[in-house]
Each structure stands twice: as structure tokens, then as C-alpha cells.
Design goal:
mainly alpha; 2 domains; two-stranded antiparallel ribbon
Length: about 120
């Protein structure tokens, strides 16, 4: 297992953005063979009864870019002072290259930013 050690750093803020549109699992019975009981069981097992839906063409990197802009603006932070950026997503935009590379290109990180 890979290990990393960081010294003299702090997480100053966290931001998330999710799409506004959502759908309930009960409204998507086609994924459960039309069986409402299966959808209800999935809701109980997984612990969610709805999911968010991004508009066509909106990617995880797009949502993350908006979150980053909201965070930096809200905190009054100059992006040039950021030494590292962590991108986390439940759904990758592409298998390869990784979504974090697209996100870094959108945000325009400083030249000295380390990619982990």
C-alpha cells in the first residue's frame, strides 16, 4: 500500500456542487424490472431514495470547477497561493486520462502545483 507524508499543511475549506435536478428511485422502476418492492428494498439497503442528475454535457470536472470557484471566492483566496489540489469524484468523466487532469486544466493551477 502506498503511503504519503505531508508536513506543514492545512485544509482551509471544502466545497461541493451537485446538480439541481433529482429523481426518486420510485420514479425509475424500469431499472428494477418495474417492481416497486425492489426499488423500495434498494432504497432501504443503499440508504438513498433519490439521485441527482446533471444536465447533458455537464461533467464531474465542470461541477468541481464550480465548487472550486465558489470556495475560492467565498474565502477570498488567490489561487496562486494554493500548493495542492485534491479532486474527488464518484463518477469519472473519462477512463483515461483521469478527470483530475481535465479539472486542473480548467482551473489553471499555478505552475508549481504538485499533482498527487
Amino acid at each position: 500500500m502506498a503511503q504519503s507524508t505531508f508536513q506543514h499543511f492545512a485544509i482551509k475549506g471544502i466545497s461541493t456542487v451537485v446538480p439541481a435536478d433529482e429523481t426518486r428511485l420510485q420514479d425509475e422502476l424500469q431499472y428494477f424490472g418495474g417492481d416497486a418492492k425492489k426499488a423500495a428494498r434498494a432504497t432501504k439497503v443503499v440508504g438513498i431514495d433519490r439521485r441527482r442528475i446533471a444536465p447533458h454535457g455537464v461533467t464531474a470536472a465542470d461541477l468541481c470547477q464550480q465548487a472550486a470557484e465558489n470556495l475560492l471566492t467565498g474565502m477570498g483566496v488567490d489561487p496562486v497561493g494554493i500548493d495542492a489540489l485534491i479532486f474527488a469524484s464518484q463518477m469519472a468523466d473519462h477512463f483515461l486520462p483521469t478527470t483530475s487532469l481535465y479539472f486542473a486544466a480548467q482551473v489553471g493551477p499555478p505552475k508549481n502545483m504538485r499533482r498527487l
